[in-house]
Design a protein that fits this description.
This protein has 399 residues and is α+β, with helices and mostly antiparallel strands. The chain has helices at 17-26, 65-80, 114-122, 142-150, 179-187, 221-232, 292-299, 393-398; strands at 2-7, 33-41, 54-61, 103-107, 135-138, 157-164, 212-218, 240-248, 260-269, 275-279, 283-286, 305-312, 318-327, 331-333, 345-346, 353-354, 361-362, 367-369, 379-380. The protein folds into 2 domains: 2-248, Alpha-Beta Plaits; 260-329 and 371-398, OB fold (Dihydrolipoamide Acetyltransferase, E2P), CATH 2.40.50.1010. The structure holds zinc ion.
Amino acid sequence: MGWLGLDDTDHLGGGCTTKTLDELISNLPKNVSVGELRLVRLWPFAKQRTRGNAAVAVQLSTEKENDLMIHLDDWWNRKIKPLAGKVTDSDDYHREQFATDPGMVWFSNKIPEDAFYYDAVRREVKLSDIPDADKSWGGHGRIGATAAVAWSKSNITFEAIAWRSQDGEYQENVRRIDSKRLQEIDAMKDTFMSRDSRTGNSLIAPRGPCPVLFGVRATTFKSAEKSAQYLIDSEETEAISGMRVFVTNQASDDHLGENMKDKVNEIEILSRGTVILTCTNHKIVAFAESGKIKLLSQWLKKGDEVEFNGLHSPDETIHLERLRIINPVPEKTRPMCEKCNVRMKSMGTNQAVRCPKCRIKSDILWIDEPRKPPFENWVQAPLDSRRHLTRPIEWNVSQ
Ligand SMILES: [Zn+2]
């Protein structure tokens, strides 16, 4: 028994590592049995990350491992190696694009320690850092491939992925999926991130020329499989070429460390509403797309204490994934007139304040009034701008 890992076969213009694995599995020798399939998301800031930033792995068992290696050599040379060197430039995609550099690894006996997985999901990893496999093929993709095998599954979810049937159709970006059934699936308690209930938009289908028709995410294997099959069985859903259920690290928060606390010293609001919060020990960023995180950040004032978590970006800032206020500084306001219940007004610099109605004076110039934040609890970005790895905050309470 052993594990085969695979990564870096897709690019912006096409290809998909899950489809490459599906084809590999479908063409294995008869005496090989297939176990668990994994879809593992990696560090979102990795320089050479692929479009979906995911690696895959599969558990394989055979009595004849040598024959399997001969088969994999041949499959690698004919089907995967030719995928190298593909690169697509895109105007609206600002990140530097690297050519695909597929990699495949086979671990027969000793599985790499999960410390390597945590490195690959939290920071930049070099090819020279990877543990030795029993056999390996190709280049840069060996990093993700090894991480997928090393993953110790402390937090798991599932994704049932279905692939489109015709090669030509990949070019057409519109995918036909039964939207009524998707709505039913979204209402089930074991599925998550299927549909954005605010906009009604599907969240299960990728955009662009990629062979994936959809991926249904769920907290159980059965629920992922049944929901995907329910969509596939509808006449309103286009034909597929296959479907498989993967165990994934999506919604695991594995890319994050412990929550952090800090005091806000400076708030800078940029164009489109992005907020830079300079705190005592951290510089944190709330992006324009981050919904409630952005709104709460814009409301903050100097001296507020916040608790947060997010990704450590290579530019030394923390990109917020969740935020809550733990201690808002009070607001200094003028006292109220007890008789008239209206706010008193200043008569001039450093002078007493006076009620505008009854004209009574007060020597108390300022009072502390508690500020009411727009959100009392943790907030997160809306579904459509959340990372695959991000765990819904509701889960930390209810699951
Ligand atoms: Zn008064």
